[in-house]
Prior knowledge:
By secondary structure, the chain is α/β, with parallel strands linked by helices. About 40% of the residues lie in helices and about 15% in strands. The strands form four sheets. Strands 6-5-4-7-10-15-16 form a seven-stranded mixed β-sheet, sandwiched between helices. Strands 11-8-9-14 form a four-stranded mixed β-sheet, with helices on one face. The protein has a three-stranded antiparallel β-sheet with strand order 1-2-3, with helices on one face. Helix 3 (about 60-85) packs antiparallel against helix 4. Bound molecules: 5-S-methyl-1-O-phosphono-5-thio-D-ribulose (MRU). 5-S-methyl-1-O-phosphono-5-thio-D-ribulose binds next to helix 3 and strand 9.
Amino acid sequence: MASYPQGPKVQDHDSVRAVHWDGGALRLLDQRLLPDRVEYLVLEDSGAVAEAIRSMVVRGAPAIGITAAYAVVLAVRHRLAEAGRQWREALEPDLQTLAAARPTAVNLTWAIEQMRVLLDAQPADPLAAALQLAERIHSEDVAGNRQMGRLGAALIAPGSGVLTHCNTGSLATGGFGTALGVIRSAWGEGRLSGVFADETRPWLQGSRLTAWELAQDGIPVTLICEAAAASLMARGRVQWVVVGADRIAANGDVANKIGTYALAVLARHHGLRFMVAAPTSTLDLSAADGAAIAVEERPAEEILHCGSGRIAPEGTRAWNPVFDVTPAGLIDAIVTERGVVEQPGRGTAQFERWLGEKI
Ligand code: MRU
């Protein structure tokens, strides 16, 4: 992967990292505790990493994929020590446990598949080869995000306000971020009149994570509750909605954090532009359209409670899909590290040309 030069101003706004490989162990910033506490979990067992992914210690599609790649390194080390020559067969359940940790973020299965192909080729030193690939997946993600940042920022006219959803930044990736990387770049280039983040119920990735991450990097942000998005748009405060993706189907339909679809409908109603920024590892060409994407549903308790407090009467039923699908027709631009697809709903989402190519 080529490296992409950044202006010093953009670099000044890029200090946060959530996933670290540290002397043989995986160190994860525990995102459940933010913004109150900055604490790391040190994990040496792939099963514990799968549980950390499931329980939202680490989240965001690219970060989940990178974390899983390092978890495979831990699993290879364990199986080599325990099963000797049978290590490859013994590894298979570990790969399956990791892949099942969260169903929608396709970067998870993408990263595990990269590791599987490498290990199936029987490298002379499987542990060293696995670590090298995991580190490459990690560093290429950061480089790709910087490129996406430049491409996405170039679409935003100077003086624009932007609204983002969930957390798509350094916390959700190897570093720099996808949609938040676009915002980071646009801010560094002096293009933005304002950055708005919605709180993103029920896990509050917007208020807990995006607001925290942008504060670390000196980018002022105004938080809104999700219900305020229409009013914000009606008052002309934003010109773009910029979001990430957990999976993009072959026709350009995008699965992302629940509430994304509503923002896309609102943006179209108000004549605003809607951008999705995601690496090509988020493309799933086996899904013809959004209907083929599995949407994760999480426990009702997540919306019956806010923090440690219950916010609905005992016995209340709740439905908690944590992603939704935005039809390609509502999207103005899909920005990847390999290029931009404008108006994917008009049949321009021909991603095949990017896959399998080396850059
Ligand atoms: O449930 P989460 O926090 O993992 O959901 C994250 C999102 O929906 C992000 O928008 C998406 O993964 C892209 S992150 C660069």
